[in-house]
Amino acid sequence: MAEESELVLEPLREGAAFTLYRGAERGKQTPVLALAVTAEQPSPRSPRRLEHEFSLASELDATWAARPLALARHQGRAILILEDPGGEPLDRLIELQDGHPIDLVRLLGIAIALAAALSQAHRCGRPGFAALSRRPRAVPAP
């Protein structure tokens, strides 16, 4: 595992085992995603999962995946740093609808992009969630 990161991160999505962040390295403009172990005392499987996700980097294509860049530590926790293709997690897009249905054309674009991206992702491993770009292109992230 690498040394302590110099990342400035904002949470995008919190889960029981992992938290997804968006941010950048201090002093740099290039945005990144970071998948961090949530628990202070994680199960041994959590860091191993990040290592496994990192090992898939050469098999992933940026047209459909947020590719892993590095393993590091941030505030004492293991993190996987990923390219940030932009977009929002699907659950956040649904929340932003505030109970209103998603426009049918947009919904179909999301469904087609998600199906295509998941098809590619399942060839390499199991995706953890999907983030959607502003244009209809789903990007599964580890």
Q: Please report the total strand number as a whole number.
A: 8
Indicate the proportion of strand residues: 25-35%
**Secondary-structure class:** alpha+beta
- Please give the share of residues in helix: 25-40%
The CATH architecture assignment turns out to be Orthogonal Bundle
Q: Could you tell me how far the N terminus lies from the C terminus, measured between alpha carbons in angstroms?
A: 18 Å
Task: Describe it.
With 142 residues, the chain is an alpha+beta fold. The protein has a single domain, classed as Orthogonal Bundle (Transferase(Phosphotransferase), domain 1), CATH 1.10.510.10. Helices cover 27% and strands 33% of the residues. The chain has a 5-stranded antiparallel sheet with strand order 1-2-3-5-4, covered by helices on one side. A 3-stranded antiparallel sheet has the order 6-7-8. The longest helix is centred in the last third of the chain and has 21 residues, at 104-124. The mean pLDDT is 81.
Helix-strand layout with pairing:
Elements: E1 7-14, E2 18-25, E3 31-37, H1 45-55, E4 68-74, E5 77-83, E6 88-89, H2 90-96, H3 104-124, E7 129-132, E8 138-141
Antiparallel strand pairs: 1-2, 2-3, 3-5, 4-5, 6-7, 7-8
